[in-house]
Amino acid sequence: MLENKMDQLNISVQRIFGKQEIEIVDFTCEDLDYKTPNFTTAGIFHLQGIALINNEQLPWSIILKIIKSDSVEKEDPAHHNYWRREALVFESKILDELPSSIQAPKCYLVEEQVDGTVWLWMERIEGGFAHRKEQFDIIAERLGRFNGAYLSGKNTPNNQWICRSWLRSWTTASKMYAPNPEEYIHQLHRDNDRSLWVWFQDFTKRIDSNLNALHHLPRVLAHQDLSQRNMLLTQNGELVLIDWQFMSISGLGEDLGKMFGVNMSLGVIPIHRYEEFKESLFHSYIKGLKASGWQGDESLARYGYCLSTALRSVWEVPQYFSLNAQLQSDLLNANLQERVNRLEQIIIIHQKMTLEAETLKLWIT
């Protein structure tokens, strides 16, 4: 794969050490085989080796990420998953100007390929993933400081390829690609499932109105992809966020809603602690907002948080109906049962947050 890439590798290693005179003594390339649901990612590789600098052998490490065009819709800079966005983020140097509460990996080289792909030669971050509630609370507080900085005097970047309507684009795509619940509802006979179907029909009718209301919220720079594996806590206490493909200008609280929602979906947050995490994350986020200097109305952040979490029902509810229908003909499938149970509890959280958002909406619009 790295045939004819020694010049690029040399440039990247030179930038790691800030030295022009280096010699790469040895290196290996490992395919991380990262199972990403983002189809604009063509591969992620870990390069590491030894460089000879001033007669001293020093180790180095690089992440090589290959991105590609996936579909016509992702060619549009307004799309939530515009395929070139992360490359443009690195080229723009926006990440060099982030508030001090978060960090981002350095990018040594953005390289266009003749096959149309783009190679990102990036810093490899040594850090761990959040598992405990206390770690998630730390991240939520840092996230509040990050978002809050743009409400307390820091200029929001205005590059046109930064998504302005991330949730609208995401919900539109989710409705296109999610299973059709109407194909499965006739197979489900529990009263709870029928009640959920009625709720979901009403919920989808109000999506446009809710998305419009989000635009009344204060606007902040957002990451919008805060799954566990995109948040690294380093030994010196830094929070490093990777994968900036979804960078957006979003409503206050949206980033936190994505963080809470996606980590429930991935099974990172335990089912029996959903309510505990829901409140703890928000309180930590507000603490960070206040530390940034923001003294605004907390209900604005709460609305963005509740609605952005609840809107994940556009994807989660169809998945629930589809998997639950499969379960009816495979009742002994423990893995499938676990997924259905988790989705059911997630949707209960969504319903509660929808109700709260509807109450708060009266004060927002």
Please provide a written account of the structure.
The chain is an alpha+beta fold. It contains eleven helices and nine strands. The protein has a five-stranded antiparallel β-sheet with strand order 1-2-3-5-4, with helices on both faces. The chain has a two-stranded antiparallel sheet with strand order 6-9. The chain has a two-stranded antiparallel sheet with strand order 7-8. Helix 5 (191-205) runs antiparallel to helix 10 and helix 7 (254-265) packs parallel to helix 9 (298-310). The longest helix has 31 residues, at 334-364. The radius of gyration is 22 Å and the shape is globular. The N and C termini lie far apart (54 Å). The model has no long low-confidence stretch (mean pLDDT 94).
Question: What is the radius of gyration?
Answer: 22 Å
Low-confidence stretches: none
> Termini distance?
54 Å
Count of DSSP strands: 9
Query: How would a textbook summarize the main sheet?
Result: 5 strands, antiparallel
Structural class: alpha+beta
Strands ordered across the widest β-sheet: 1-2-3-5-4
Map the helices and strands.
Blueprint: H1 6-17, E1 23-31, E2 41-53, E3 56-67, H2 85-92, E4 107-112, E5 118-123, H3 133-149, H4 166-177, H5 191-205, H6 207-214, E6 219-222, E7 231-233, E8 239-241, E9 248-251, H7 254-265, H8 274-291, H9 298-310, H10 313-328, H11 334-364
Antiparallel strand pairs: 1-2, 2-3, 3-5, 4-5, 6-9, 7-8
Helix pairs in contact: 3-8, 5-10, 7-9, 9-11, 10-11
